[in-house]
Write a structure and sequence with these properties.
- The chain has 185 residues and is α/β, with parallel strands linked by helices.
- It has one domain (15-154): Rossmann fold (3-Layer(aba) Sandwich), CATH 3.40.50.2020.
- The chain is 23% helix and 32% strand.
- It contains 4 helices and 9 strands; from the N terminus they run βαβαβββαββββα.
- It has helices at 14-31, 48-56, 111-121, 180-184, and strands spanning 7-12, 37-44, 64-74, 85-89, 99-107, 127-135, 148-152, 158-159, 175-178.
- The protein has a 6-stranded mixed sheet with strand order 4-3-2-5-6-7.
- It is globular, with a radius of gyration of 16 Å.
- The structure holds xanthosine-5'-monophosphate and magnesium ion.
- Its main location: cytoplasm.
Length: 185
């Protein structure tokens, strides 16, 4: 596999990501066997690849499984999130009375997700859980309920597999640590 020159090291290969998502999909399949209606909410843009692989790893023939997307941005300056989210694009459908899983790419401080969950809870879903591909456990500033976690990672800046820096590197099939010189110029 050829690695992009701006990547310091590959953290998880595409195969490792796929294998882990199969396991997460099995867990979700098992937990939602009795669900009538399950909505997976992808948070754009970072979660688009994770969503595509996760939904294929869920096998619930007796459940109405649907996919919806939101685009949010966190108010604040520079790289620190303020914890107040602005909704740039909202869901198309009503989630009241439905089982909901938020599908996120990464949790850093947890502030963005915490604010999003308050917003979604107010819409009265039957249940609300989170599936996040990556969690920077040591960076968490708030406790966020996060039931399905792909991988815990150290506090480094990750790109690839949907995750970007300045809209670059989303297309990489693996998750990699970005070289410092790539975000300094
Ligand atoms: P908080 O701190 O609110 O932030 O949990 C979560 C959001 O911050 C972005 N983020 C990253 N994006 N590589 C990225 O591509 C990273 O290593 C990274 N860390 C945080 C991301 O938008 C996430 O939704
Ligand atoms: Mg995000």
């Amino acid at each position: 596999m050829s690695v992009h020159p701006h990547i310091k090291r590959v953290i998880f290969t595409d195969q490792q990501i796929k294998d882990r998502i199969i396991e997460v999909g099995k867990e979700i399949t098992n937990d939602y066997k009795d669900s009538k209606e399950l909505v997976l909410i992808g948070v754009l843009k970072g979660s688009f690849m994770y969503m595509a692989d996760l939904v294929r790893a869920i096998n619930l023939p007796n459940t109405h499984v649907s996919v919806d997307f939101m685009s949010i941005s966190s108010y604040g300056h520079g790289t620190t999130s303020s914890g107040v989210v602005k909704i740039n694009m909202d869901l198309k459908a009503d989630i009241a009375g439905k089982d909901v899983i938020v599908v996120e790419d990464i949790i850093d401080t947890g502030l963005t997700l915490q604010s999003l969950l308050v917003n979604l809870q107010a819409r009265n879903p039957a249940s609300l859980q989170v599936s996040v591909l990556l969690r920077k456990k040591e960076a968490l500033k708030v406790e966020v309920p996060c039931k399905y976690i792909g991988f815990d990672i150290p506090i480094v800046f990750i790109v690839g597999y949907g995750l970007d820096f300045a809209e670059k590197y989303r297309e990489l099939p693996y998750l990699g640590e970005l070289k410092e010189e790539a975000y300094k110029n």
